[in-house]
Amino acid sequence: MSTISEGQTPDSDPIAVTHSSTIRRLLDGESSLDRWLVQAGDWCSPILVKETRQSLKSRQFQWTFILLMVAIAGWTLFAILTSVPAIYFQPAGRYLLAGYIFILVIPACVVVPNAAYRSMANELEQGTFDVLTLSPLSSFQIVLGKLAVASVQSGFYFASLTPCFALTYLLRGVTWMSIFLPLATIAVGSLILISVGILLGSLDRARRYSTLISIAMILLTIAGAFTLYGMLTGFVFEMANMSGDPDIQIAFTSMLLFFLWLMTYVVLIILAASAAIGMASENYSTTIRWWGLFQSLFMVGLWGAGFGLMVSLSPSRGSASIVREAEQMLSVLFIIQALHWTVLGVFFVSERGVLTPRSRRRLPATMLQRVFLSWGNPGSGTGYVFILLCLAGVILSTFLFGLWVIMDPGVSVRRYATYQAGYGEFHSITIGTMVWCWLAFYLGLVRLFMVCFAKNRANRFVLGIVLLLLFQFIGIAGTLYLSTLGSNTNTPTFEWYSIANIPWSIVDSQKLPSGALEALMLFSAIVIVLNWLTLSRDLTVVKLAVPPRVKEARIESKAIAVDELD
Amino acid sequence: MIHKMPNKSNTNESASLGSLNTLSVSSAVDAIAYTPTFAKGFHQASTPMIEVRRLYRTFGKTEAVSDLSFEVMAGQVFGFIGPNGAGKTTSMRILATLELPTYGDAMIDGLSSINDPDLVRKRMGFMPDGFGTYPNMDCVEYLDFFARAYGLVGKDRINAVKRTLAFTGLDKIASKSIRGLSKGMRQRLCLGRAIVHQPKVLILDEPANGLDPRARIELRQLINQLAQEGVAVLVSSHILTELAEMCDQVGIIERGKLLAVGSVADIQAASSSGREVRVRLVSRMEEASQWLASQSHVSLVTVEGNSISLQLAGDVSDQSRLLRGLIQQNFDVIEFASKERSLEDVFMQITTGAVQ
Lengths: 566, 356
Known about the structure:
The complex is a heterodimer of chains A (566) and B (356).
Chain A: H1 14-28, H2 32-41, H3 46-57, H4 59-83, H5 93-125, H6 128-134, H7 139-170, H8 176-203, H9 210-242, H10 248-277, H11 285-313, H12 320-348, H13 357-360, H14 367-373, H15 380-406, H16 413-423, H17 428-453, H18 460-485, H19 502-507, H20 516-533, H21 536-539, H22 548-565
Helix pairs in contact in A: 3-7, 4-5, 4-7, 5-6, 5-7, 5-8, 5-9, 7-8, 7-10, 8-9, 8-10, 10-11, 11-12, 11-15, 12-15, 12-17, 15-17, 17-18, 17-20
Chain B: H1 8-11, H2 13-22, E1 50-59, E2 62-72, E3 77-81, H3 88-95, E4 103-108, E5 111-112, H4 117-123, E6 124-127, H5 139-149, H6 154-168, H7 183-195, E7 201-205, H8 213-228, E8 232-236, H9 240-246, E9 249-254, E10 257-262, H10 264-271, E11 275-281, H11 285-293, E12 298-304, E13 307-312, H12 316-328, E14 333-339, H13 343-350
Parallel strand pairs in B: 3-8, 3-9, 6-7, 7-8
Antiparallel strand pairs in B: 1-2, 1-4, 4-5, 9-10, 11-13, 11-14, 12-13
């Protein structure tokens, strides 16, 4: 450690003075702008402040920014020079716009998501993650901070290209919508890939598969970026043809709502990432469950709006064409809902379900709360029932809603059923029943396997996914094999047991053999009963009182906070 | 009911500043005494600040920690001694809320590290074995970040960073990149990070590892300074002589089990089966050794050149009686000295060197 020699004061030591001024500049701020920024920093996430400082020093950001500027200048000059003089009378703006979209997609959907992944992974690799989690920052705050930093970086790139997009608007063939929608799509795509990057960076805490995950992340972002670019280029060139179409407003609104729905998945991924790095004794499952339900209802809301719009545009309620469209919409909704709950469900049924005292302090206490809210408690049994209840609720409510909307007032359900039977080819409720039974059957099998053979196993979520895929594979390959064996022509034919084959059953849902649906319902019921028998442990957990010392500590924290404000 | 305890640190303010001066810490900013946040706390002197209750931690079939229990009071320095793989780091990581035990509980200021890690983290500073620093940040930026992370805003944050820089002697290199810091300076920075929010409990895992002698002495002074201010310190180290000087209590751990716990003197006394005595004579070595071996309380008599070593199972009066006997037997004694067993000797005696 350096010391000041006798007779030398800190003020006369040039090194000390330099460092002293740095401390002043960084902590107090020298100019009024500095001071304002320092004060503003107090209101920002500490992670955002730290990572912004780091990013401004990092070469990755500097080089990406310089390359972006060079690409913008190069493309602008090249595109304009090669388009003159056609640019004055042909819709050349689209050509220029497609180039700018490519220039934006690369940093926003490849560079920034990978930087977000590296930022999270580096915390784990460099050993800084431990010291970060030791701070009172919650895991959600940490993940949100990482997301905010990546979004700010992405925002820089968007801002840099804004004048270029304005330039294309001045040219022929570009409307405000053909600029706005690609930008919104890239922003949403970038956010989704960033959140996926943060989640992947959080998952492998032991860093055993870091190389594999890094490669997967790079491939995913490149694939995502090029898919997005392909879609958007097509969109930009099609936009001019659609500009006079009255349905464009509907398409625009639908797309915005679709983006909003995708954003709910960004939140879900962030919640999952914060659970991956969070406190081991904390209950993250309940929040994710309720968020999953919110997403499901949000999806139903969007579907309802689209359905209502379809009916309102239709000439007459109760017509054959509207029933057919309604049936299609319902079937698609049921399949999407089932996929949503399967993805969430495999994690819920893989939970260990050992509740820490901390988790038990927040359990529902009253009789009424226990009846309705216990299904949100962590545990594979409650998770299994939760997803079955949610999907059943969604299927039944949307089917009845659809029935009510499409029928003329006063028309009985019996008449609708007769009506539907007359057409015979669409039967959403059959699809609804099948997807619910498949969910109950396959996830139930996964849970039973976990309960019986993998009670205290580590990496349960990975095992759950593997088991689900394995059962699905058996369902597909097994039924195909059996039906081929039973066929004289060696051609697989749909038998009653082929109902276990999900894709085949959906394709052949109009002509299911008799007994197939009943068999599915019977086997699902057996699996549900077996699961119900092993459910008691999840439901008998009771709420614990908060220890007095914890109450004291919380009051103490509040007292300190109040004193600091004073 | 809120019990406002007297601010222990305020009463020691002048002493703190005095101690800082003795550390030769140069400061470009005003030296601000380290004051743990007892002022608004519920801390009671009789409550242990660190309490480990029957802690177990297994990794597969390996029992890293087994039935570990000990307590550390406010202002105490507790040394954790054990060979590599003894379970020191695992125990400390459980206390620091970074790992869960298989069984048992670890309490900081009466709060469970397992069930209330959020509350524990506000009261505790942990310095892990690895540095945990961001290489492309400056010292001041690093401390500023952690001060923000601990919820310090405005003047409180600025003062906390300045105080920590001054306390750790980093103020002269505040704007230096962490990448360019020496190991000792990084250790100081990590200590600064651990104390920036003025915790009541400090857990240090091998803080002196790889430091030069001067840096070690300075680090020891800093730890003692913190203990004087009322902070409970749990520190592990391989350098036993250092721990013996620094710690009020030590715990010797091997294969996850606590073999001995108490003050250094108590452990030395409890584990000691006597003292080693060295006698130098002018002549008649063989005769003297035979006479010594025939005495009660004496064992392990060995002759090395013109000196005899022996193990005396007794106190100072037995030692004095033995010397008197030698003189009465007309042996020409030129040196008669006993050696206290060091912590290293005790450690070597208690532990077997087995690793898991």
